[in-house]
Amino acid sequence: VPEPLIFELSSPGRQGVALPDSDVPTKPVEDMIPAKDLRVVLAELPEVSEVDVVRHFTRLSAMNYHPDKSMYPLGSCTIKHNPRINEDMASLSGFARIHPLQLDETCQGAIQLMCELAEYLSEIAGMDGVTLQPAAGAHGELTSLMMVRASHERRGNPRS
């Protein structure tokens, strides 16, 4: 059974935590944030109890691979948040069984997925482009160093 979204656990009027009154002087938010940056309509946040929030995110965390839960056979690149759904998608036969010498026409879906991912990452990061080439930790670190070196060379500031 998939874990519902936190918004699906919401119930109107339910409150998680009641904050105490401030014991230090306060300032109106309008004095600190320009009016153009203030929200006009309240955010539609989920109305859930504290215990529901804790249980929800504990269940989600139990679905993730992490080094404290079990052995993960890779290095530093994997000691991070690895949502279970990412592992499930990566293990689909259309992705997991692709071979570098496979015919182009048989892997267009995977190529499209990687191109779109690169576009999204570029847009999110505000960069002209990204690479999905590094396979893992040390490979990624070497790729990063090579990109920094190429950037310096392109600017006429070569480093050795």
UniProtKB/TrEMBL annotation:
Entries under InterPro entries matching the protein: GDC_P (IPR020581), PyrdxlP-dep_Trfase (IPR015424), PyrdxlP-dep_Trfase_major (IPR015421)
Gene Ontology MF term list: glycine binding; glycine dehydrogenase (decarboxylating) activity; pyridoxal phosphate binding
GO biological process: glycine decarboxylation via glycine cleavage system
GO CC terms: cytosol; glycine cleavage complex
Signal peptide from the UniProt entry: none
Name of this chain's protein: Glycine dehydrogenase (aminomethyl-transferring)
